[in-house]
Amino acid sequence: MSEQQPYDDENEPAGELYPADKIPPDHIGVLIVGVVFMVVGWLGLFQLVTTTLPRVGQRWIFFLLLQIAVTGTVLPFIRYLNVRFTPITAELPPGGVIVRQSIWFGLFVVTCTWLQIPRVLNLPMAFLVAIVFIVIEAFLRSREIRNERAE
User: Is the per-residue pLDDT at 27 higher than 50?
Assistant: First the structure.
């Protein structure tokens, strides 16, 4: 077994930008916002579903609260996936990227919910919507990575 070197701010081992026990400051803020979104969204949805009738205005509020709730719920998981699958030699994606990817997932859930109202949602349609969001994010992320390497 090899002995781990202690980390400090001045002497980080080569090849590792953020050790496992150090979280970037913008990721801490993102996680806090995720918890707030999750609590506000799910409590708002509970309040809306249990106390109102399903009319047009309440339907739009439902979609908004569902977007907020799902975005906040998946945010820690999206961050985990980004940290887990980012190469050790690469810099972690900024908090804005994690928030954007969580918003894409929330938008996917809201779109599927909206398509379910007239009963047009099926597995191929959900797969197509997911592929569209994944391709858009892949294009955005590849452009960001290229610009980061150019600097």
Answer: yes
